[in-house]
Amino acid sequence: MHGNTKQKRRRHLEMASNPLMVAGVHRLENQFGPAKNWPDEEVEKIHKVANRSADKFTSHTYSVDRVRDMIERGFLTQYVVDESGRDKQWVRDLVQFMMASPGFEYRATHDDLVQLRYVRDHISSKHYSQIARSMDRHVDWARHFMPAARRLKLD
Known about the structure:
The protein is an all-alpha fold. 66% of the residues lie in helices and 0% in strands. The longest helix is centred in the N-terminal third of the chain and has 14 residues, at 2-15. The chain is elongated and about 55 Å long.
């Protein structure tokens, strides 16, 4: 399995228009894991190699981090737009950018799970789509975390 990954990376390097940049990306993936863990200085170096300025989605400010948090917690685009005051197209682009990332995973807080369990227990329809819609969440998020919410011990 490990050798197969190396072969894929080698082919990716050969096909890339900027092999130096791709090599840098692979180095950062090996060293730091997913892109969200990369130090800003290292990201800036990659952008310089790519001959462009920092991407609007990789700069970390409070508001961008808050929007990323809402997306990771499965909130719908319109909810994120309403809560953050950001442009709808900007949020859509960020959602696509994040979900296309290989390391993207939904996450849930304890309060999210409590709310999911409560909605599931008190909504007339038990369909994931109805539960998710009532919570302003993606159906995939609800489907992913429903088993954890069911196991939750409520006092």
